[in-house]
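INTERNAL AUDIT FORM
Audit reference: QA-55
Scope: verify that the stored structure record matches its stored sequence.
Auditor: D.O.
Record contents follow.
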Amino acid sequence: MFLTLNKDVAKDLYQKPQVHIKGIIGDLSLTLGQDQFRDLLSILSNISIAESYGKYLACKPQESLTPKTAKPYWHWAIGCVVRDVAKKRKLHWNKFNSFFQDRKRYIELYCQKLNAPWLSDLGKKDSQELNDLEDKYDYNDVVYFRNCAVALTRKQFRNQPVILRSEIPKQSNRFSRWFGGKKKEDIKPVSLTDTEVAYLFLRVGSGEEIVYDETESKEKLPLDFNQIQVCFFFFFVLVVAVPFLIDKKKQKKNSYFTDKKKKKKKMSQK
């Protein structure tokens, strides 16, 4: 085993690791406590969120940010915003509707891959459907769908660690104390209404950490969420429905005049 220690990481502008270990390990065994395991999941979740911004890093300036190099960074930031705005302007009702339907279906399927004891394992047909949905959407959408599925399962699981079924240790009895020593069939999920689930996904999209609180009221939602629902309705009417109806009306009007011109032309030919 070889160990290389970089004593001055600032000298290389933090481009080289401080400790570099190279070797061959035949067997590695780790014992994690409940808090350590949750912290590890939190780190992995933060890494996934950081990677979700990968589309912005492709055109990021290579030089370090200084007062002299601020201009390229401003061009980069404005370009990212302009690209996102242009992409959102291409929104159509059909895509808008299918996105929410696909999100709901993806979350249902992906929750079956997680360690939710009240759900059955994912079958081959469902696995193929899940893969098809992942091929349909880009990386950031898939990360968002998965974060929603993890948040939903964590909420239903009363903040117990959420991992993939394939990652559950074989000696699961060692971890049974984490779940209160209950048997699989005795664990029941926390029931959530459709409105609560919608609010949960909204919080996930805003980057908020989801934590189960047994004292929170299930019936009362924040006023701002109700306001968001009203604003969303007006947004849909003004941005999606109205332009769609106007286009339909224009098409109908144009087709009417086109047909009228054709009739006149036929009459004149006769």
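Auditor finding: record pair retrieved intact. The chain has a mean pLDDT of 71.
Action required: none
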